[in-house]
């Protein structure tokens, strides 16, 4: 499946979830946001990707602004905007931004599913595709920081992150690895994963989106 195919399938699943949900349900993975806010963020975020507007990404203000500007709008308004922005963003999916958009939407689909008590779509091509860019970034950071290499054993294959002979092994599902790298796991949760060896050297680089202080159980 292409990046566009993965994105569109996830957008359809999120639309169906949202249409049958209480939009005011709090989303624990995104403190301060509701299900409706996450949909608004996805709609507004896609516009920002298209316009190359990324101010505030490092501080979190990027997403907060999108939600703030759309508070009070109906779900239909958000979905209509999202559909229009999707058309405008068509060329992005074959660019370096394509894998980032996939990671973004798949992560937020799981955020919404957890909030609504509707788990699913954890062992599919979307989750595996969503890992592509984050694993590249982890590998890059490990090499830049001079960290020892790590073997990662997933259900669909094994890869080595970093340079040189692996100094440890992490056995983990694609879903759990995505949630970890996407900042949906606390350090204590990360330590309980199936590591061979001391995980401490790698915990920092596996928190690409910041450290989560409170455990998120899914």
TrEMBL record:
It comes from the Bacteria. This is Maleylpyruvate isomerase family mycothiol-dependent enzyme. Residues 11-89 form the Mycothiol-dependent maleylpyruvate isomerase metal-binding domain. InterPro entries: DinB/YfiT-like (IPR034660), Maleyloyr_isom (IPR017517), MDMPI_metal-binding (IPR024344). Keywords: Isomerase, Pyruvate. It holds the Pfam family MDMPI_N. Transmembrane segments: none annotated. It comes from Solihabitans fulvus. NCBIfam families: maleylpyruvate isomerase family mycothiol-dependent enzyme. One of its GO terms (molecular function) is isomerase activity.
